[in-house]
Amino acid sequence: MFDKEFKPDPKPEPRKKKAKKRINPISDKERSRKKQYKPIRDRFLLDHPICQACNFKHSDQVHHKKGRTGRLLIAVEYFLACCDTCHRFIEDNPATALKMGWSLKRIGK
Fold first, then answer.
1. pLDDT at residue 70 tops 90
2. Is 22 within a domain?
3. Total structural domains in the chain?
4. What is the domain range of residue 67?
5. What is the mean pLDDT of the segment spanning 35-64?
6. Which one of 54, 79, 107, 109 has the largest count of C-beta atoms within 10 Å of its C-beta?
7. Is the whole model's pTM more than 0.85, yes or no?
8. What is the DSSP string of 59-108?
């Protein structure tokens, strides 16, 4: 069946490598949402220069009481101007934040 002289080449044929496509770190949809959010956030922080949680430090962050999905990202009625310390406390202690009114339940009313 095979010729006795048949010796396959030990090296496989070289294959062309496909160019790697870089994945965008942020989608176009998310980029447009952030573009819309930034001026709203900046205006809110200008209007609320003091932290609304401790009423002491300068606010430099916005806590979203009900989350950031969909329309909630730009819903100013759910914003809370916070200093870095209070924002970390709110994120690390959700039960206390809920009790103090700094966060709201995300499901239902």
1. no
2. no
3. 1
4. 28-100
5. 96
6. 79
7. no
8. P-EEEETT-SSGGGGG-GGGEEEE-HHHHHHHHH-HHHHHHHTSS--SS-
